[in-house]
Amino acid sequence: MQFLRQTLTNSTILYNPQIIQTSVAVIVNNDEILLIKRKVNARDPHSGQIAFPGGKVEKDENTFQAAIRETFEEIGVNLNESHHLGRIDKNYQAYYIKNKNLKIATHIFQLDGQVECTINENEVDRVMRLPLNQISLEYMDIKKYKNKSVHVFARTVERQKYLSDIVMQGFQYQQFPYYKLEKQVFYGLSWLVLCDVLQKLKLHQDVVDYTFQNYHYGFENNVRKEQFFDEWFKKKRLNQFIFN
C-alpha cells in the first residue's frame, strides 16, 4: 500500500459551518474493503445503501477525526494515525440541501490481521467485505431512469410540475452503473469513491472505465447541463422550493 500512500495527501479539512462537511473511512483489511449496509430508515434517503463508515464533521473536529469517530460509532473498529494512509485530494460534492453544499472527504486506512466489528444496530444493518482481487466487470450493470430527477426530488404533483417546467427542458434520462455485491446494489458516490481508489491502486481499470463512461445525467448537450446546475446550485431555487 506504499504506492497508494504516495498518491494521497496528509492534510485534513476542518469543520466549516457554511457547508455540511462529512467524512468517510475507506478501510483496507487484508486486501478487502470494509463496507457497511445502512439500516433502513424512512427518514434517511440513503438508508439501506452500501456505503463506507462515516458521517458529519462536528464542531472543533476535522475530517480525519470524524472518520475515526464515526467508524468506531458505526462498526466498533478503533482506527488511529498509524493506520492512516492519507486522504484523497478531493472534497467530493454530493448534492445541495438546506441551502448548503454537502461535501465528502475520503480518508484511507490500512488494517492488518483479523478485524472484529461490533455494529451499531441503530445505524448499520451489517458489515460487508469486497475482496479487491475479486472485483470484476462481469458484476457491473446499468440502471436507466427516465426523468429520474423528478422522482428523486419531487414529493407532490405540484412540485413535479414545477420541476418539469424548470428542469426537464432538455432532460432525457439518467443512468448510473452499479456493482452487484452479495445480491445487493453498490452504486452512487460511494461506488465512485471506490473507483477513484482502484484507479490509484492501478487495479481493474476496465471496471473504472465502464463506471465513468456510463454515468449519464441525461442532458441533450452540455449547455443544458450547465443551465440545470446553474439553476440548482447557484440560484438555489429548486432547493428552496423543495425543502421550504
TrEMBL record:
PROSITE patterns: NUDIX, NUDIX_BOX. Pfam families: NUDIX. Residues 5-155 form the Nudix hydrolase domain. GO terms for molecular function: coenzyme A diphosphatase activity. CDD domains: NUDIX_CoAse_Nudt7 (cd03426). InterPro entries: CoAse, NUDIX_hydrolase_CS, NUDIX_hydrolase_dom. This is Nudix hydrolase domain-containing protein. It comes from Paramecium pentaurelia.
